[in-house]
Amino acid sequence: MITDSKILKAIFFIQLVSSFLVVVGHFTADVLDFTSPFWVLALNQLSRYGTVLLTIVSGYLTAFSFEKKNPTWRQFFTGKLIYIYIPFLLSGVLYHYLLHNGMPHTREDFINILLGKTGAHLYFIFMICQYYVFAYVFRNWITKKNIPYLIWVFMIVQYVYINYLHQGWLGLTTRHMLPSWIFTFYLGHMIYWYRESILPLLRKKQAVLILFTGISTSSAAYFVMSSKLFVAVHLVFVFACVVTFLVMMVFLLELVDVIKIRFHKGLTYYIYLFHSACLILLNEWVKGQYGDLAWLFTNKWYSLLYLAVVYFCTGLFSILVARLFQNIEAFVKNRAKLQQDAA
């Protein structure tokens, strides 16, 4: 039997894989400054699955939260403030310091932090904050009954906005804005709402699973071999990621009871948030010890070992950050309970 508990465990595995792919993307970008063998180019292309898979997962978990927990606006946004927005602002300050060798002090510096422009990957967090507001406001209007129709509207909105409507105000790219991702998020909602139909179909109908697996692997091979750079704003890439997400879900549901990994709330988010900082600091340490990075990045085995070290260090730091914010959340909840009891 497929339970929500097993599905959530499978999703945590997908989050871990996705966060690793994000790390791979920035790591291979550094390697490409020195050399460009096929394996690096292939990993760089495949790494772009990471952000889209995380977007689908975010939509799925948000729909789950609304249905199972039915949070008040205070509960919902307090959690996002503690786990998402405050770490986002702190990371913005950190990246400004690392990239500009000093703390932010001008009006432009602080605006860039608020807009997610201090780190190349922080656009995603600025955008996801927009999504949480939109999703909560419209949670009672966008439902399981009307999503089969609205999903087409969202697809059109995403395509039209990316290709025709985006203006680039304040130096923001299409990736910074929710309309560029709204279809992808609500695919996650749709998978959650129809999980009891989709997952049993894929598990019981072997021909359908083989078809989906074939589409997933062949599309990945196509993206690797293509000279065109496919990213999250390409709808064909989004469709490939959705198929891959479903295939991963089916196979991981068979493994979650065998492979035991402890869940840490916010872990994969903090890996996304701080991996680039860990990479910058490790690169600086290597250059300080050995003079340059060329010897490291031009050797395949050294590079792969270094990638493992970067992910391990990022994961370890992210676990510590996750525990810190779990303690902050517990403190806030206890204080609110005490105030409520006193009243």
Automatic annotation (TrEMBL):
<feature type="transmembrane region" description="Helical">
    <location>
        <begin position="7"/>
        <end position="29"/>
    </location>
</feature>
<dbReference type="GO" id="GO:0005886">
    <property type="term" value="C:plasma membrane"/>
</dbReference>
<keyword id="KW-0808">Transferase</keyword>
<protein>
    <submittedName>
        <fullName>Acyltransferase</fullName>
    </submittedName>
</protein>
<dbReference type="GO" id="GO:0016413">
    <property type="term" value="F:O-acetyltransferase activity"/>
</dbReference>
<keyword id="KW-1133">Transmembrane helix</keyword>
<dbReference type="GO" id="GO:0009246">
    <property type="term" value="P:enterobacterial common antigen biosynthetic process"/>
</dbReference>
<comment type="similarity">
    <text>Belongs to the acyltransferase 3 family.</text>
</comment>
<keyword id="KW-0012">Acyltransferase</keyword>
<feature type="transmembrane region" description="Helical">
    <location>
        <begin position="149"/>
        <end position="166"/>
    </location>
</feature>
<feature type="transmembrane region" description="Helical">
    <location>
        <begin position="78"/>
        <end position="98"/>
    </location>
</feature>
<feature type="transmembrane region" description="Helical">
    <location>
        <begin position="231"/>
        <end position="255"/>
    </location>
</feature>
<dbReference type="Pfam" id="PF01757">
    <property type="entry name" value="Acyl_transf_3"/>
</dbReference>
<feature type="domain" description="Acyltransferase 3">
    <location>
        <begin position="15"/>
        <end position="319"/>
    </location>
</feature>
<feature type="transmembrane region" description="Helical">
    <location>
        <begin position="178"/>
        <end position="195"/>
    </location>
</feature>
<keyword id="KW-0812">Transmembrane</keyword>
<feature type="transmembrane region" description="Helical">
    <location>
        <begin position="305"/>
        <end position="325"/>
    </location>
</feature>
<feature type="transmembrane region" description="Helical">
    <location>
        <begin position="207"/>
        <end position="225"/>
    </location>
</feature>
<dbReference type="InterPro" id="IPR002656">
    <property type="entry name" value="Acyl_transf_3_dom"/>
</dbReference>
<feature type="transmembrane region" description="Helical">
    <location>
        <begin position="267"/>
        <end position="285"/>
    </location>
</feature>
<feature type="transmembrane region" description="Helical">
    <location>
        <begin position="118"/>
        <end position="137"/>
    </location>
</feature>
<keyword id="KW-1003">Cell membrane</keyword>
<keyword id="KW-0472">Membrane</keyword>
<feature type="transmembrane region" description="Helical">
    <location>
        <begin position="49"/>
        <end position="66"/>
    </location>
</feature>
